[in-house]
């Protein structure tokens, strides 16, 4: 997914930090479903939809609602008329949102690439950049966070939270059940060692 933003700059919401290097973008976007939210803080339809999208995002990513955040990232592509309007809108939205900087011509490229003609629009993308849903506004309105599971399956995300830390570097070369098998092997070894200790203690006492 970082390939879509190669050579581009994204802004971390409510901060001055820029997410621009390939490594930073990879860490922010890799193995996640990406939402591109085309909207404006002044558009009446967006003012109705944005609070729904905010709640949708928080329910999937905020620790108040979930134990661990879903594999989801959102990039705001604004049609705000001024940088102040964009900043004011983003201040009301989740901190984890990213945004294309105001005035960046890349916003127009994204609109053309994904055929966005009106706002609000939410384009849902796989990690490789393929489109899952061209505009998910109605789906989010109708289903809420439940629709994320469909996107997750379509994106074929790898849930790395189930991998052991030692397997992170080469998880692609192994079966998803391999770490579980090896964890079981370690537990069996520990049990075997404890049983052996007990037997030896029994022999000494007799």
UniProtKB/TrEMBL annotation:
> What Gene Ontology terms describe where this protein resides (cellular component)?
mitochondrion
The record ties this protein, via InterPro entries, to: RdCVF (IPR029520), Thioredoxin-like_fold (IPR012336), Thioredoxin-like_sf (IPR036249), Thioredoxin_domain (IPR013766)
Q: SUPFAM superfamilies, alphabetically?
A: Thioredoxin-like (SSF52833)
GO BP of this protein:
photoreceptor cell maintenance
**Known Pfam families for this protein?**
Thioredoxin_8
Domain Thioredoxin: from-to ranges: 1-142
What Gene3D superfamilies does the entry give?
Glutaredoxin
Organism superkingdom: Eukaryota
Residue ranges crossing the lipid bilayer per the database entry: none
- Alphabetical list of PANTHER family matching this protein: NUCLEOREDOXIN-LIKE PROTEIN 1 (PTHR47109:SF1)
The protein here is known as: NXNL1 protein
Q: Which organism is it from?
A: Thalassarche chlororhynchos (Atlantic yellow-nosed albatross)
């Amino acid at each position: 997914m970082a390939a879509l933003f190669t050579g581009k700059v994204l802004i971390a919401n409510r901060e001055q930090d820029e997410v621009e290097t390939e490594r930073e973008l990879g860490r922010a976007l890799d193995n996640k479903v990406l939402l591109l939210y085309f909207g404006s803080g002044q558009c009446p339809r967006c003012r109705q939809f944005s609070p729904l999208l905010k709640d949708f995002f928080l329910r999937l990513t905020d620790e108040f609602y979930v134990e661990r955040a879903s594999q989801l990232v959102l990039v705001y592509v604004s049609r705000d008329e001024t940088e102040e309007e964009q900043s004011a809108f983003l201040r009301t939205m989740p901190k984890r949102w990213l945004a294309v900087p105001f005035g960046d011509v890349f916003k127009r490229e994204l609109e053309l690439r994904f055929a966005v003609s009106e706002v609000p629009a939410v384009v849902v993308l796989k990690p490789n950049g393929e489109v899952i849903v061209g505009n998910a506004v109605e789906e989010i309105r109708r289903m809420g966070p439940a629709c994320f599971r469909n996107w997750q399956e379509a994106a074929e995300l790898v849930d790395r939270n189930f991998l052991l830390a030692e397997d992170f570097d080469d998880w692609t070369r192994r079966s998803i059940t391999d770490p579980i098998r090896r964890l079981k092997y370690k537990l069996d070894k520990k049990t075997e060692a404890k049983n052996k200790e007990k037997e030896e203690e029994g022999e000494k006492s007799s």
